[in-house]
Amino acid sequence: MIDVIEAARRAGVRWLSLYAFSTENWQRPGAEVDFLMRLVRRVVRKHAPLLHARGIRCRFLGVTDPRIPPALTRDFADLMTLTEENRGMTLTVAFDHGGRGDIVTAARSLIRSGVPAEAVDERSFAAHLPFPDTPDVDLVIRTSGEQRISNFMLWQVAYAEWIFPPVLWPDFRAPHFLACLHAYQQRDRRFGGVTPNSNGAERP
Q1: Which of 2, 75, 165, 179 fits a 20 to 30 Å CA distance from 143?
Q2: What is the average pLDDT score of the chain?
């Protein structure tokens, strides 16, 4: 994981999000969940000094379920506090995250704020999402050959490009990331519009 983060930073990526644990992952066997919690804690504690030294701001999207071990929650909070002033790159780790849940959170926030229904638009809605300064996602790399969204940042991926490398996430390394980044850079992003072709006409 750390080599992918470093490759992204060196390539000039300013915002990187990693999906570490979804709200649906709680349905996995208890022993597997416990192992993942211990593994994540080891990774966070091991790499915190390096992330800070590289000027990376770390944030955790989700982290609301009371089943998360308190020690892990403290590690998350400590890392966010340690790196909060860094601006070299923002690393968002989605942990106990669900895109639908984020949308519900934003809707509740709008209701509590008393925003009239006719005043709600995409911009005002997005302002009530968790970490509203996060830009829309440009590229989603879905490893393991899977071709599904899996409830990941549903609002932000509306116009993302998708790449589906067959390699499993534990084996995904910096060269795989850079290959995906290169493929993305070859894409023609039109956001529903049109792009002139070589003879001056427009194609959809």
Answers
A1: 75
A2: 93
Decide if pLDDT at 198 tops 70: no
Would you identify the CATH topology of the domain 2-97+138-182? Undecaprenyl pyrophosphate synthetase (3.40.1180)
Give the whole-angstrom CA distance, residue 167 versus residue 197.
35
Residue 184 has pLDDT above 50, yes or no: yes
Domain ranges of the chain: 2-97+138-182
Q: C-alpha dihedral over 179, 8, 60, 55, to 10 degrees? A: 170
Strand stretches in the chain, DSSP E? 15-22, 56-62, 89-97, 139-141, 161-163, 195-196, 202-203
Q: Are 169 and 144 in contact (CB under 8 A)?
A: yes
Distance CA(167)–CA(146), nearest Å, equals 10
* 204: pLDDT strictly greater than 70: no
Q: Give the SS3 label for residue 76.
A: helix
pLDDT of residue 203: 47
- Tell me the residue type at 95: F
136 and 161 in contact (C-beta within 8 Å)? no
